[in-house]
Amino acid sequence: MTKNYIKCFILIFLSFVACTKDEFEGPSLQNLYGDFSISSPFIISNSTPNFTNNETVKFFCDFNKSVDWKITIKGLQTGSIKEITGFSDIIDSNVVSWNGNTSKVPFFGEETCALELSFLTEPDTLRDTLIITGNKIYDGILVADFENGIPQDALVFHQFSMNMTFDTASDDPLNGNSYFKMGGRMGWNEWFLGSIDFPLDMSSVNSSAEDFYINLGVLSGINGEVASDQFINILISESNYPFNDDLSNNASDVFQDTMEVYKYQIRPVDWVGWNMVSVRYDQFEVKSSGGNNIRQPKNITAIKLQCQSCPGLSANCPENMGIDVRTDVDFLIFTEGADILNQ
């Protein structure tokens, strides 16, 4: 019996030794629950970046353990904000950088910016500043920025009613010095307020619909008020019919039901201030029965922006009788590969 007990003890001991190992999986307890400390200062590579010349700002900092961190860059004049986030024990300057873009409009200008490095679960905050000496130039096919007024070949139509504002203005642009006001008072039983049409030549574009983006800045709200169910229809035509064949209707002739036309609704436009809306072309639905129903960016010949809202005389929206519809637009641009804010 004694020998059997000894044999059992030896087997149990050997099994225990065989099952132990020097390595462990996952983060250590020190890494998870140990006191947090910053091992090196927060460093920025360029305190006066000129983004016009494609300069970048690189960031570096390291810590004694992995944490959720966030770099926040805020333009002190425009109020534009860029956020960069991660989870690691180092902010590697070979990986983490900024090219002057924004997370949400307005765009950055030539201005002083405040920088903060903060942590989700730690009270520490590191701060710095930089000065933008040249604005980022966004790469794309610009349709309209309204800096020189309404483009020469564009066509504008609006209803003849109260407070129609289908014209350029300079009081509150998104980018540059001018934008296009597109709205008015819905004091009649009609959804459609007006539109602006642009002819296009996209024959040099090689992108697919899944890789092609329509980007549009939209301004809404007057004194904090927003009309009920106001929205923008975006129509895109791939028809090769003449853009303005009928000079009497003050609107393009390539959006007929018998032509190849695609549609997307920005609905509702229910925010106050500027917002950048970006849509892939493959997200547009088929509007008419003409054409082959295959969205091909190189075949696009025109784009239309329509301002619409629930009418004030409608039983559904009597509150709109005293509110101006506002779906103002700026910086209409096509991009390839990524939307405008992710360039």
C-alpha Rg (nearest Å):
29 Å
CATH architecture of the largest domain: Sandwich
- CA-CA gap between termini: 79 Å
Helix content: under 10%
CATH T-level topology of the largest domain = Jelly Rolls
Characterization of the model:
By secondary structure, this protein is mainly beta. It has 2 domains: 31-131, Immunoglobulin-like; 141-342, Jelly Rolls, CATH 2.60.120. It contains 2 helices and 20 strands. The protein has helices spanning 2-19, 29-33; strands at 43-44, 57-75, 81-91, 97-98, 112-119, 125-131, 141-144, 155-158, 167-169, 179-181, 183-185, 192-199, 212-220, 230-237, 261-266, 273-280, 285-286, 302-309, 324-326, 328-336. Strands 1, 2, 3, 4, 5 and 6 form a 6-stranded antiparallel beta sheet that branches. It is elongated, with a radius of gyration of 29 Å.
Strand-helix topology:
Blueprint: H1 2-19, H2 29-33, E1 43-44, E2 57-75, E3 81-91, E4 97-98, E5 112-119, E6 125-131, E7 141-144, E8 155-158, E9 167-169, E10 179-181, E11 183-185, E12 192-199, E13 212-220, E14 230-237, E15 261-266, E16 273-280, E17 285-286, E18 302-309, E19 324-326, E20 328-336
In short:
With 343 residues, the protein is mainly beta. It has helices at residues 2-19, 29-33, and strands at 43-44, 57-75, 81-91, 97-98, 112-119, 125-131, 141-144, 155-158, 167-169, 179-181, 183-185, 192-199, 212-220, 230-237, 261-266, 273-280, 285-286, 302-309, 324-326, 328-336.
